[in-house]
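Subject — a protein and its fold

Tokens — whole-number codes for backbone shape
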Amino acid sequence: MTNFNEMMKYLRTSRDVTQAELARAIGVSPSTVGMYETGERQPNFEIEEKIADYFNVSLDTLRGKQTIEVPIDYGKLSDINKEKLKAYYQALLDTQEK
């Protein structure tokens, strides 16, 4: 299970949001966001709600009590690897249908 500070950092970095951008959105300083991410400080309930709303996740997800689906960015794969992935996917479907 992930804890709050790990989940918050994951959500922020996976969405290419800087600490300064998040700080502005939730009304704290960038250094406070940094301390939340390192676990040096814990936000109060109101700030937790703002963070959850900003990332459009539940408080349980933000607190690491619920998992989230992590989207896979297939666009980062080379064309050759995309073809390999399609072939593997088809092979899995073929064996599943038997």
In short: The two ends are 36 Å apart (CA to CA). The helical segments are 4-14, 19-26, 30-38, 45-55, 59-62, 79-96.
